[in-house]
Structure formats: structure tokens, C-alpha cells
Design a protein that fits this description.
Length: 478
């Protein structure tokens, strides 16, 4: 619909992983676009709003707050065919409270009559009103021009500017229940960035935050109970400061594992569809507070579109991921439908085909109900927590680069770049800066080749690896 279409058009991405239920037809949280020789970072704060009207004002506030903090300019997207309601005015008031320029994009304006209708939206009190059609690509240039003009050029021109698309009117019924906490951007500032958005207490090295995410009824509560029940000491349930979030901290082999927002995990949705939407929203919220995510799949159902959506968010969030295939008992020892017991290898192959982007995530088959495989989960969490914080020295990296045979990378000649050297700029997730001969975006196949080589050499089990490119000539000018 409106905002996603605009987002996809600007970032030229079309990585759809979803079905046609409204509200979960979402693609990406953030992306980039180039305009007039500059690069802009686009943050989509959108999502889903619960069916409980009482929650809506706070959630709108949360979105606005994040947008105000993060972005250099704000774009509010509304559908020309919808009526304005009081939450819209409230939202605008909040957006204007900050010092950031606010733009109103009135979407789905195609033709004369619609242009007139767009004028109605001036009642919101925003001066910058831009009629657009995200689908047909109308009016977008003017909007981007105005945005570019409003955002001052940064001196070091190194970091792209941010600009969020807060929400659409036509998605009122499906909007976000949460604050998105902004994007997680690769780079040196990652650690500070995360602290700002951590809502579940300060980060400590010996503590690992774990999010249990997945669709309704995959067994999240059952697994949580099993894990916290078997662990040696339940330290305490700690009430979060900002919401009614409750974390449970468990000690395992000298490490503290903090299961984030366990109240949220246990919360049940009202209708099936709403529960399904909420599970996506909750996953995003929980990921924000986590180091490691347990992505739960129901073995009796296989990998569904919603699993893929949630998995996509996990991947993009930069968190380490363990894929937990639950209810394994029900398709093996406890099988009642007369079929032969399921085979791990076959199941995993099918799962990996759907969750391609999570190729680095280990898979564990278990039964939360019968409490099998729990120790394995704990050990993997501990290992992944260490892996994602690992640091490779520049010396090690240089020796590694000398060994890599880049001729073997399956990349067309024109897309090749020469890497002069490479450093690890950040941990959690490990982020590498490549100093190259040309300022180009890394070719997908090249990036994958490099990533695999790094994993072969250094491990980084369970965590995504991020790359940034810096062209050498760019460096000379500094
Ligand atoms: P949640 O909505 O993800 O928190 O799911 P629940 O933990 O409430 O579990 C949903 C249903 O699946 C319950 O009836 C559980 O008893 C059942 N369940 C959970 N784990 C397993 C398992 O490992 N095996 C089987 N057979 N059933 C399970």
C-alpha cells in the first residue's frame, strides 16, 4: 500500500517475503536512496496498530518520538481517499514539536479531482504538502527535491542523512503497536546507538539478552517456561522501566541470560489474524532489546510466510539468530497421522530454502513440551553471544586478505572492486569497512563470497556480517 510502495520505489528494493494480509505486507525497515548526488537513509517506522483503541495514542507517540530523535527530516504519508481523524492532528502536533522539517506526502493522487482533494490535507497545518502517487511515480521528484533542500549537507559527508516515513493514514487499522527504535546501522557508533534504544536495562558484557520470537502457538511460552524452569537459578523477574515489560534473568554456566519481555511472550492475541500480526510487531520490539534471537518454527506446520517475515526482520536487525524447530516430538515419536517420522536433514533443507538470508543461523530441533534439546539452546546462546562480539585485528585481516583468491569470486569483471585493506569497525554485529579502488556498492555475489571467506577464517557463527565500502580517492580528499 502507500508507504511500502513509496519505500520500495525509493530504495528500489522488492524483497517481498509476505502474504496478502494487510499489515504484515511489509518489506524493509530501512534502506537508502540517492538523489541529486547525495545519499539519503530512509527509515520506515510503520507497522501495525492493535485493535485496542486505547493503545493507539501512545503508539503514535512512540513512533513520533523515534522519528524525531533519529531523522533529519520527517515525511508523513497519508492516503488522499481517507478522512482525517483526530489522531492525525495529534500526530502532526507531535511531529511539529521538534525542530525537524516535516513533509506531508498525500498519496494516491492520480488526476485532477484527486489533486483538489489533496488540498484538503492542508487542514493538518503542514505547509509542505506534496501530492504523489507512489505506485505511478508521480510527484516524487518534487518531494525529494524539497527534502534535499531542507537537509543541510553534512560537513564530512560520510554518514547518510536519515529521513523516516512515519505512517500512512490508510494503514490506520494496521499500524504499529510499538516504537521501532530506528534503524540499526552498521558502523562504529553501533554500541552507543544500541544503548540509547535498549529499553531493558543497561548492556553488560557478561549478560546476554535473548528474544524468543515466532508466530502464535509455535510454543514460545512453553519454551520460555522450560528454559527458565530448568536453569539453575532464576535470579529475578525484573520489571522494565518504560512499559509493563518483564524480563527474566537466568544463570547458565557463569553467564546471565536475560529473556526479554517475557510478559509479552505470554500475551495472547484476541483473534487469530490479530495474534498473527501482533507476533510480527512483538518480534520487532523484542529484537531491539536482544543480542540473540530464538526464531521458533512449528515442525507440524513447516515454514510459513509469517515465519519468513519474522526471520527477515531478525536478519535485518543485526541480531544473532538460532532457528528453533519446535514440536519435533509431534512429527517423530508422537506422530499420529500414520506418516513416517520426519527427517531432520530434509526438514532443514526445506527450511533453509525459504529462510535463505539466515544461512548463518544454526538450527536446533527440539520439543519444548517434552523438554528435549534445552541444554543445546543454552550452550548455543552462550556461544553465539561470544561470536558476535569477536574482534579481528587489522593485522589478522591483512594476512587474511593476502590469502583470499578473489579471482574465484563469481562476479562479472565490471563489478569487481579491488580491496586495498579492510578493518573491523564494530562488533555485534561484526562490521567491516573495505577500502577499495572504486566507490561502488558491493555486488551481491562478491559480498557473499567475501562473507563466506571471512566465516571460514574467523567463524562468527550465528551472526550476520555487515560491510561498508570506502573508496580510496574519497579518502585522499579528506
Ligand atoms: P506461543 O503462543 O508461541 O507462546 O505457544 P504456546 O507455548 O502457548 O504453545 C501453543 C501450543 O503448542 C500449546 O498447546 C502447547 O502445549 C503446544 N506445544 C508447545 N510446545 C510443544 C512441543 O514441543 N510439542 C508439542 N507436541 N506441542 C507443543
Amino acid at each position: 500500500m502507500g508507504k511500502s510502495t513509496l519505500f520500495n520505489r525509493l530504495t528500489q528494493s522488492r524483497r517481498s517475503i509476505v502474504g496478502d494480509e494487510p499489515g504484515i505486507t511489509r518489506d524493509r525497515i530501512y534502506g537508502e536512496y540517492d538523489w541529486d548526488g547525495r545519499r539519503f537513509r530512509l527509515v520506515d517506522t510503520g507497522g501495525i496498530v492493535p485493535d485496542d483503541p486505547e493503545l493507539i495514542p501512545t503508539e503514535i507517540y512512540n513512533q513520533a518520538r523515534v522519528a524525531l530523535e533519529e531523522a533529519a527530516a520527517l515525511v508523513l504519508v497519508v492516503d488522499v481517499r481517507t478522512e482525517l481523524a483526530s489522531p492525525d492532528y495529534d500526530l502532526v502536533k507531535l511531529l511539529l514539536r521538534g525542530t525537524k522539517p516535516v513533509f506531508l506526502a498525500v498519496n494516491k493522487v492520480e488526476g485532477e479531482a484527486m489533486s483538489l482533494a489533496a488540498e484538503n490535507f492542508r487542514r493538518l497545518g503542514l505547509r509542505e504538502v506534496y501530492p504523489i502517487s507512489a505506485e505511478h511515480g508521480l510527484g516524487i521528484g518534487d518531494l525529494l527535491d524539497a527534502i534535499a533542500e531542507a537537509i543541510p549537507l553534512q560537513k564530512d559527508a560520510q554518514e547518510p542523512e536519515a529521513e523516516p516515513v512515519p505512517e500512512t493514514d490508510d494503514e490506520r487499522a494496521e499500524e504499529d503497536e510499538i516504537s521501532e527504535g530506528g534503524p540499526v546501522e552498521p558502523g562504529v557508533e553501533d554500541e552507543t546507538h544500541r544503548k540509547v534504544h535498549r529499553t531493558h536495562g543497561e548492556f553488560e558484557q557478561h549478560e546476554t539478552s535473548v528474544a524468543i520470537i515466532g508466530r502464535p502457538n509455535v510454543g514460545k511460552s512453553t519454551l520460555l517456561n522450560a528454559l527458565t524452569g530448568t536453569a539453575r537459578a532464576i535470579v529475578s523477574p525484573i520489571a522494565g522501566t518504560t512499559r509493563d515489560a518483564v524480563d527474566e534473568v537466568v544463570e547458565f554456566e557463569g553467564n546471565q541470560l536475560r529473556f526479554v519481555d517475557t510478559a509479552g511472550i505470554r500475551r495472547k492475541g484476541k483473534t487469530h489474524l490479530m495474534a498473527e500480526k501482533l507476533s510480527v510487531v512483538m518480534a520487532r520490539r523484542h529484537l531491539e532489546a536482544a543480542d540473540v534471537a530464538l526464531l521458533m518454527i512449528d515442525a507440524t506446520e513447516g515454514v510459513t510466510a509469517s515465519d519468513a517475515t519474522i526471520g527477515g526482520y531478525a536478519h535485518e536487525s543485526g541480531r544473532s539468530v538460532i532457528i528453533v524447530v519446535n514440536k519435533w516430538d509431534a512429527v517423530t515419536t508422537g506422530r499420529k497421522d500414520g506418516k513416517p517420522p520426519a527427517d531432520r536433514e530434509i526438514f532443514e533443507r526445506q527450511l533453509r530454502a525459504v529462510l535463505k538470508y539466515l544461512s548463518y543461523a544454526p538450527v536446533i530441533f527440539l520439543s519444548a513440551l517434552e523438554r528435549t534439546g534445552l541444554g543445546k539452546v543454552m550452550r548455543e546462546v552462550k556461544e553465539l553471544a561470544a561470536e558476535r562480539r569477536k574482534r579481528v585485528t587489522t593485522g589478522q585481516m591483512n594476512r587474511f586478505l593476502e590469502r583470499v583468491d578473489f579471482q574465484r569470486a563469481p562476479v562479472p569483471m565490471s563489478k569487481r572492486v579491488r580491496i586495498f585493506y579492510m578493518t573491523q569497525a564494530a562488533v555485534a554485529p561484526p562490521t567491516f569497512v573495505l577500502f577499495t579502488d572504486r566507490d561502488v556498492k558491493l555486488h551481491f555475489a562478491f559480498e557473499r563470497f567475501l562473507e563466506n571467506q571471512i566465516r571460514d577464517a574467523f567463524g562468527f557463527k550465528g551472526t550476520p556480517i555487515w560491510f561498508k565500502v570506502k573508496a580510496r580517492n574519497e579518502k585522499k580528499e579528506e
